[in-house]
Write a structure and sequence with these properties.
The protein has 292 residues and is α+β, with helices and mostly antiparallel strands. The chain is 37% helix and 14% strand. The strands form three sheets. Strands 5, 6, 7, 8, 9, 10 and 11 form a seven-stranded mixed beta sheet that branches.
């Protein structure tokens, strides 16, 4: 089941991926715990393992609780699904948070699980928002030390979509500023399929560590369906451009439909500010500004 998730704008893209995985695992745990069988409570709303009603009242064809060996706490039966959650909570802070304050009351635990699920269900089951159409990549006059990158979207972006594109670019620049795009040190790639047991040379890595560094980048700006940013790639290798293209291509397919990506040159209908590398103008605003 595809379940791309949009997290709050303050999180970066890599954190979103981790959070998505955690949420899916958590959801599976909850669904398993609450749907061991298809037995409903008398109110027709709650679900619990067959023969282990939350209220302690019998349901049709229920197996006697005593025969199942369920625990009791202050006169309330503790069903197997809750014991499973309690065991997992020892190593899972989020499950521990769900159980906190319930006094081992199955009805209270179920209510907190339902509340948590309903709060996240819209994000968890959100449909894929990208576009299947391929992103067009164009190169105009290219100057790596004075480079404008232009991104045209299919639609006017939402706040989440602005943040996704902006943070993807910020992450790309951060890697470049740390020297990630260094073709002189691609030892694992050069090893090919013989990676197991390879001897990684830190001497070689350190020799070339300072040869491929991004120098500077302006903030991402928006004008209707267009986004742009200025950067100085410094001594970084052209590998950086391929990695940006790959990243935005998949971002376009899964999250934000990107119509075209242009390297270099200036758009005639949005030339303001290009001389000053991102000075504020009337037609655009910075994604990080408080005025947006």
């Amino acid at each position: 089941v595809e379940a791309p998730i949009h997290s709050p704008p303050c999180r970066n893209l890599s954190q979103r991926i981790v959070e998505c995985t955690v949420k899916v695992v958590e959801l599976c745990q909850m669904v398993y715990a609450l749907t061991v069988s298809e037995e409903k409570s008398p109110d027709g709303k709650s679900w619990f393992p067959k023969g282990q009603p939350v209220t302690g009242e019998p349901v049709s064809n229920a197996i006697p609780v005593d025969d199942l060996g369920t625990e009791k706490s202050s006169g309330t039966e503790i069903p197997d699904w809750q014991r499973l959650l309690e065991e997992e909570a020892a190593n899972d802070p989020e499950l521990a948070e769900i159980l906190e304050g319930t006094n081992r009351d199955p009805k209270a635990v179920e209510a907190k699980i339902r509340e948590r699920f309903e709060a996240r269900s819209e994000e968890i089951f959100r449909e894929r928002t990208g576009r299947d159409e391929g992103m067009v990549v164009t190169f105009r006059e290219f100057d790596s030390s004075n480079l404008w990158v232009w991104i045209e979207l299919y639609d006017f972006p939402s706040e989440n979509e602005k943040t996704l594109v902006s943070e993807t670019i910020d992450a790309w620049f951060t890697l470049g500023h740390l020297g990630a795009f260094n073709c002189f040190n691609l030892q694992v790639l050069e090893a090919g399929s013989e990676v197991s047991g390879m001897q990684y040379s830190m001497e070689k890595a350190q020799e070339d560590a300072n040869f491929s560094l991004f120098h500077n980048m302006d903030e991402v700006q928006l004008n209707k369906k267009w986004m742009r940013f200025w950067c100085d790639l410094g001594t970084a290798d052209e590998l950086a451009i391929d990695i940006l293209v790959n990243s935005l291509m998949n971002l376009s397919r899964e999250y934000v439909g990107i119509k075209q990506l242009i390297f270099g040159g200036v758009n005639e209908d949005w030339s303001e500010g290009t001389e000053g590398h991102g000075r504020d103008g009337d037609l655009f605003f910075r994604l990080g500004s408080k005025d947006r």
